[in-house]
Amino acid sequence: MANWVTGEHYGGNTLKKTTAPISLVGPQLGDVRLQEAQLLSQQKQIGNELDQRVAQRTIELGEAQEELGQKQIERSLVEEKLHQEERELKRSEARNAAILDSALDCIVTIDHEGCITEFNPAAEHTFGYPRDEVLGKHLADVIIPPSLREKHRQGFARYLATGEARVLGKRIEMTAVRADGSEFPVELAITRIPLEGPPSFTGYLRDITERKRAEQELRRSEAFLAEAQHLSRIGSFSWRPGTDEITWSEQLYRIFQIDRDAPVTFELIGTRIHPEDLSIFQEHIERSRRDRSDVQLGFRLQMPGGAVKYVHVAAHIRGDHGQLEYIGAVQDVTERRASEEALSSARSELSHVARVMSLGVLTASIAHEVNQPLSGIVTNASTCLRMLAADPPNVDGARETARRTIRDGNRASEVISRLRSLYGKKDPTIESVDLNEATQEVIALALSELQKNRVILRPELAGDLPLVAGDRVQLQQVILNLLRNASDAMSTVDDRPRDLLIRTELDDNDRARLSVSDVGIGFEPQAAGKLFEAFYTTKSEGMGIGLSVSHSIIERHHGRLWATPNSGPGVTFSFSIPCRPEGLTSDGTRASRMPSVSDADEMPVLRRN
Amino acid sequence: MDDPPREAHSCVMELRQGRRAAERPLVSVVDDDESVRESLPDLLGEFGFAARAFSSAEEFLASDCVDQTRCLILDVAMPGMSGPELQRELKLRRREIPIVFITAQREETVRRQVLEQGAVECLFKPFSDTALLRAINSVFHPK
């Protein structure tokens, strides 16, 4: 190679040496020389060509080599990509397999002929077939009940023929069948797998037996609730004070007699509330809005026909500040109220009977006490007559029995006196009485009873009231009696506060007046004259004695007791008695001012605690 | 009071005329009321009976008259043992004396009870002599 490389530079010499023997051998030296030159030139040309071709080839080789390297890189890149895709595919397949294996839903794929190509573990579990057993089988024969198979085949054929799909892409419910032949409800969604070639499908199936049962139970529980609400006359509601969004149960519409389609608003509710209770209702709504407190409220409804219903509302507030909501119940208590009223009337009749009986017991004890001596009188007198009628008459015996008759008569009289002292009262004691103070004491005594009857007592006692002369205890009995009468008169009042006003004032300068005003049932004008008669009463449990006794007590105080109807509801009872006259000593002598105890005192007077 | 009816009167006459005092049947009176204890024995004497009066059931039971008593006139309400209690006690002792109850308490329930327990009659005080005689006669002259 070293010759070839240096040949261009030394070639002439080398060729000259090598070509010399040739010219020595040729016959004509000039020809030989020419030939030699020509050869040399040819040789040179060939050498040049060779050199050129070698160089060319060398370049070509180099280029090819380079190209080859490039291709090698490209190839490895492709290979790398292929590997990557393969990995991806594997991953994807693994993912798909994992999904198939772990899916809670049954996943079944079928080919265009309806034959099963995939059947995941959930499907195996649900339908009771091992995968291997069903692969390649017709789907309809495996999971569709015999009664529906034909329909399924028709639908499948129609889709293949026309592309018209009734079930694709939708959630449908149908009945499926297990390996053991038992049928159960499934929810089904079928999608077409988006690949070229003949269509294939994936079906997702879910056993909805539990859901169906839950739905059925929910429906039944809803029906129970509706029925319970209907029976118990309780409707429920929710109310969001923030938006005034109100939801009613069916029964509540029924209670309010409002059409179910009407949106519930307070305006609409207001049209059903009794006009007298509307303000109370609105006040409670406003308070609930403001205070977010629980609601307990009773009020009346007035139906379009005029019928009145009593309802009771109870509601709790729930939720946080963003979305507060009242959840509550409305109970129609009309019937309960009616029966309560009937019960209370029965009770009052019963208590009337009890009262009459206690009067009966009193009468019996009086009768017993009196009948004993009367019996002696009758027996003695009879014996006396018989002795006188005897032949001969037993005059001594008759005289003795007559004497005993008189004695028994006196005994009967003593019995009456004993009863008087037992059931009657002591003589009144006269003293200076501060009517305000006496009234305060009575109020203290009666307050708990008044509060129990939900009476709101308002005392208005005059500051400059002079002392009165009288029997403090008797006057207090009158005041207590008036308070109780007023309270009793308001016991049925529910549509307004049971206000009771007790007032003292100076009357005509020398008299003190005390009046008690109620807002109760009042009295008929024709009854006004009878009010103070003994045994006249408008109260079923009263004996009609209280006012009569009060009247006689006030009369004995040289006073006056009267009643006037109020301009509004109710009655005012007033008494007016003289103030303590000058000269009356504070230890209360001048008993002569007071008349002796009248028969009215003998009545069992006022109840005292 | 009314005159005794004719047959009652004749009965008394028969008793008074036909028997000596010692042979008269004994009628006992038990009543806590003194006027009854004083007046009734005299009337019973007029009827022709021997009579004894006791102020309580206990006193009667303690006496020696229980066995001799042919008829008992008994108050209902008494301190201590009551009339109906004495009625029961006598029944327990198998001393079933015919009893005419008398009471100042006009109570039908008590009357019904004692009659159910076998009393001859229950009279409300004050009662007439004829009513008493009719009751006693039903003991001695049952129809």
Descriptive report:
The complex is a heterodimer of chains A (609) and B (143). Chain A is of the alpha+beta class and 609 residues long. Chain A has 5 domains: 95 residues; 105 residues, 2-Layer Sandwich (Beta-Lactamase), CATH 3.30.450.20; 115 residues, PAS domain (Beta-Lactamase); 77 residues, Helix Hairpins; 172 residues, Histidine kinase-like ATPase, C-terminal domain (Heat Shock Protein 90), CATH 3.30.565. Helices cover 52% and strands 19% of the residues of chain A. Chain A is built from 15 helices and 17 strands. In chain A, the strands form 4 sheets. In chain A, strands 2-1-5-4-3 form a 5-stranded antiparallel sheet. A 5-stranded antiparallel sheet of chain A has the order 7-6-10-9-8, with helices on both faces. In chain A, a hairpin with a 5-residue loop joins strand 8 and strand 9. Chain A is elongated. With 143 residues, chain B is α/β, with parallel strands linked by helices. Chain B has one domain: Rossmann fold. In chain B, helix 2 links the parallel strand 1 and strand 2. Chain B is globular, with a radius of gyration of 14 Å. The N terminus of chain B is likely disordered. Classes of the chains: A alpha+beta (609), B alpha/beta (143). Chains A and B meet through helix 11 and helix 12 of A and helix 2 of B.
